Amino acid sequence: MALTLVIGNKNYSSWSMRPWLALKASNIAFDEVSVPLYTGDADKQHILKFSRSGKVPVLVDGDVTIWDSLAIIEYIAERFPEARLWPEDRARRAHARSVSAEMHSGFMALRNECGMNLHRTVGAKALSPDARGDIARIQQSWSECRERYGKFGPYLFGAFSGADAMYAPVVHRFRTYAIDVSEEVRSYMDTMMALPAFQEWTRAGLAETLVIEKFETG
Questions:
Q1: Which of 41, 92, 105, 168 is buried deepest, with most CB atoms within 10 A?
Q2: Distance between CA atoms of 94 and 102, rounded to whole angstroms?
Q3: Phi, psi of 58 (to 5 degrees)
């Protein structure tokens, strides 16, 4: 039985992008169910058919349902160990899980002030000190990963991993809001944006019709 991943609009749904990218970049087959968000009660009722959380993303694997982005990535890593979504080295794997959990639970100012919107005209905006602090911390984390593990490959921990999937929407945010980044961070962003799965998501998001004019939250 094929996996089914329920996602929201590719233009807006940063949380949907994370497990979608993990599956696509790992060449794991899955069926995609897209539920348009911000259209009223109908979208919520559609999602509730898959998960009582009423939120996307949702992964359905037979009688198993997972309704959280990071939990889905963990499930994929266990279900398909050949995909190597986490580094094999224990210390590197712990580091990858730590930065992924930090993304999962933190950086609220950046999320609120720089919502994912692929249609937004690229350009800077005034940001709060908290958002600027989030940006500085993310750059610090990425640079540290590249300094430690760059010899193993071009991603945060060498090969593509769950950590890259978790931070993929941030790459979009940094680009969309013209965030000033270091040379090391720019190189990593270029690597992510060259990833075929990343490009596929971006093309699909740009092809979507805007739901709310100048929508900048998510």
A1: 168
A2: 12
A3: -135, 130
- The pLDDT tens digits of the residues spanning 2-47 come to 899 999 999 999 999 999 999 999 999 999 998 887 776 766 677 7
How many H helices and E strands in the chain? 9, 4
DSSP summary character for residue 151: G
Annotate 37-49 with DSSP letters as a single string: -SS-HHHHHHHHT
Report the distance separating Cα 115 and Cα 109, nearest Å: 10
**Which spans in the chain are helix H?**
14-25, 41-48, 69-79, 90-105, 108-113, 129-149, 162-176, 183-193, 196-207
Question: How far apart, in whole angstroms, are the C-alpha atoms of residue 16 and residue 6?
Answer: 8
Contact (CB, 8 A) for 43 and 37: yes
Q: What is the DSSP letter of 3?
A: E
Say which DSSP state 87 is in.
Answer: -
Q: How many other C-beta atoms lie within 10 A of the C-beta of residue 19?
A: 30
Taking the C-alpha atoms of residue 53 and residue 67, their distance in angstroms, rounded to an integer, is 7
Q: What is the pTM of this model?
A: 0.92
Chain CA centroid to CA 201, Å: 11
Q: Which domains does the chain have, with CATH numbers?
A: 3-83 (3.40.30.10), 90-201 (1.20.1050.10)
